[in-house]
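One such shown below:
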Amino acid sequence: MSYIVRDKQTLEFNVIKNYPRGDESKPIDGLEENLEIFKIIDVAPLFDINKQRLSIDGYLFTNEAYNEHIKIAKLNYIISDIPPDEIIKKLNNSLGNHLDSNYPFWEQNKHSGKGLRYISTLMQGGTPTQEESSYINSKVIVLADWARRCRDERDKREKNYLENNIFPSFEWEMRPETN
């Protein structure tokens, strides 16, 4: 816990990390009469982390007693709305994290390579093997379609937020099972 020592006349103060001489149940010997001690209490207000930003704006000195010789100072917070461009950035980051964690780049790269070989075989007049066709249909197409649906949903959420003031959800469709 931290404490504040404040001058009663000038109201100047210093924040100190530890209570002088350790035991806060005992008054400080030799403390000047014009100084008072506050214990800093952090009671953060409720806010929506997706919509609002919480900032510390100093201390609220109270006359509430913490004990016989210490008063309470509360951290004073400001809650402000997050601007629309930051909400859109959060939405993009949320989808990016979802796709990256559920369909990592190495797997996308592997599927792209197999897809290119499949298309190349078809373009050269060949016939892909049953195994290649099955892999493309059960994995590559399924996951590419899922990623596209997620991106389309992100676009809808952005549009609804900007045009209709409907706050977007940061929950995304789960990755489909592939064999």
